[in-house]
Amino acid sequence: MCDGFDVGISRPCDLLYLPRLEFLPVSISFQIEAISGSGRAGKLVTPHGVVETPVFMPVGTLGSVKGISQDLLEELGVRILLGNTYHLYLRPGVDIVRRMGGLHRFMSWERAILTDSGGFQVFSLNELRKVTEEGATFRSHLDGASHFLSPERSMEIQIGLGADIVMAFDECTEYPADGARVRASMEMTLRWAGRSKRYFEEHKNEVPWGGSSQLPALSSQPVALGSQPPGASRQGLQIPRFARDDNSEPDGDDNSGGADFIGQTQALFGIVQGGMDRELRRESALRTVEIGFPGYAIGGLSVGEPRELTREIVESTLEFLPADKPRYLMGVGTPEEIALYGGMGVDMMDCVLPTRAARHGLLFTSEGRVSIKQVRYAEDSGPLDPACSCFVCGRYSRAYLRHLYASNELLAQVLNTLHNLHFYLETMRRVRESMLGRAQGCT
Amino acid sequence: MCDGFDVGISRPCDLLYLPRLEFLPVSISFQIEAISGSGRAGKLVTPHGVVETPVFMPVGTLGSVKGISQDLLEELGVRILLGNTYHLYLRPGVDIVRRMGGLHRFMSWERAILTDSGGFQVFSLNELRKVTEEGATFRSHLDGASHFLSPERSMEIQIGLGADIVMAFDECTEYPADGARVRASMEMTLRWAGRSKRYFEEHKNEVPWGGSSQLPALSSQPVALGSQPPGASRQGLQIPRFARDDNSEPDGDDNSGGADFIGQTQALFGIVQGGMDRELRRESALRTVEIGFPGYAIGGLSVGEPRELTREIVESTLEFLPADKPRYLMGVGTPEEIALYGGMGVDMMDCVLPTRAARHGLLFTSEGRVSIKQVRYAEDSGPLDPACSCFVCGRYSRAYLRHLYASNELLAQVLNTLHNLHFYLETMRRVRESMLGRAQGCT
Q: Which of A212, B27, B99, B280 has the most Cβ atoms closer than 10 angstroms to its Cβ?
């Protein structure tokens, strides 16, 4: 038995742990392997494989991590990706993705996916959106066409996309905002959380890859980390979609996703808001937990507030989230921050920083930031990061990377992104290993 | 013994064939394995590995095939790349590349490289250049700065870059041009070929990866195809430049390229010009052969003339090139053309078409051209080319590729380029295999 959690739990957390039957048919389970201070190392079991936590989720906005093929993501050890509902809703559109069998099949990614609710992106549109109790009307950043998102519509889209984990539709409160505004926004997010859950529960069996059966969601067999999802083959995991030497259209009209996922559904996470007010954060957390979700996210941070304030709010929110559920801090952060928050008990994080910075030539290394465009690297024959084990640092020199970037070569964006993603994933793996090494045993 | 060549040769062409001593120290040899009609399957042995011919050489203008990492080029089976002297001279500059150990080391590519002379690109600048007997003055397309290229300067640059095969500095005659102009241009190319050879012979030992010794260039041992260059390891060929777990700067100041290439030098190819005049082509070929090179290129084609005329000129030029030397047709062409010319006895070709077309969404398949941007592919769950064995066709659907292209995702350019390159390389492999299968034995 494990103890020592901030809020007491009394569940066994050994490797064979699977959720109790009353949670079924929720298709994720969360197993805590070790705790260390406030942090914990765990395993998140999804319909599309096991994710070791704490985990950094690369952002694949439009069904692609910019410039990086799915093969390379697998080689990097990525177990879960984030897709953006707002972007996928506009292009290629949820109907196409659903008819193609869901986002996993559409992008040929057999590992786990999480989609955001679209809320954050809609609220980022500023001049282009209008929010009412019902939902948000907004104009597409692509063509100005008018669209409407609500808790129900976001759920409908996210079910159509078919990610393993979907997010409640929330309002990301702007910063700064006065107390009344923050409370009103938080209250609306809570009402939207209830509506999201209601719609999701009624429709979750419509997920394109299964769910039409009411069989128990999870196998009663233990799922070993590193085990393959159904049908896995190439490089230990990837499923070639097309048989060789067979000119027939694969899978014909059968876009149901196959029988491997029968009875399994997505998992809907709730989102805590409450601005920078610790009391409202506490209230938002408790009332979101009261609604009840298999995982909880902390939203509304990294919106312009000082970094120290982010940390305080995260810390005081984590206190009120159940220790036996995965906890996801949205949109954070730098390598230092993901290590910090991993150590504080956050299990999942995502951020565009490693991929976006890479495309602008900003690289994260064990020796600090490197702006690879600088002329000082023009004849630097050393690797980008001598301590890094990634493909890029193993093969190319700073001089070559600098040349590619300075010459605006496509390969610069590819290699820079590969390195930064590796750096982030490795940072998180070290936090996890450190917790597994230092932790009190969970036996 | 092989016979049946268009011009009689009487050399043994078994796998152990190596050039006679009077050609040493030239670091390439060409072995003909089989002939079929006018075509032949061969092996070109370079200081950086063996190249099976006929071969298509992907274009890596600036030391990178746009969007494709060197690991992937190796996986595609690329054995020789083309680099553009004009572009590399401007960025990063030959001095940097030379000080970094040459282009192979700079871009971490241990297989063969060929560089063009810079002439074609300079002549493409039109308004920005002025040609005299001495050479060509031109303005950089990047910043307008004035530069000068001559046979001697082109050789100096190409020796500094250190490709396995370098090209004589020639004038690519414009099309159309009158008879006097074509002859004058051809005569200058011949004079420049002599100057190129003279400078090259005097300076070829300055190549960054070796050559300072006057030892015979080639081992007397047969070089088996698929054998690894010195130090090869990963995936059968790639040499990780940096030792793991070693924070020291690799190789220190020693940019000499190491002892593996002692005595080896580059090989300089001559270029036949003569416009669209078959008689001038014959004269250019014979007089270029008289100067004497270890390989010959056909230049000045694909400059706007009708395709049928290209074919006629290629055919009538090939007649006058030695059958025992590699023959390189520059800047050609479509998949149909490279198959055609391979069958006609051309051993080497290069073209930007597969890579450039890929970036514009034009894909070559066994079923014809596919413009992947078309809406008809939006829900096409089949592979791009059902008969293709590339990574892309094995994993992704036309719908996904269409989505990536329509959404301007970086991955579109990467995957499209991978497929087109595979298609070109596979086309050439089939031509080769067909010749090996149909040919009279060479034993």
A: B27
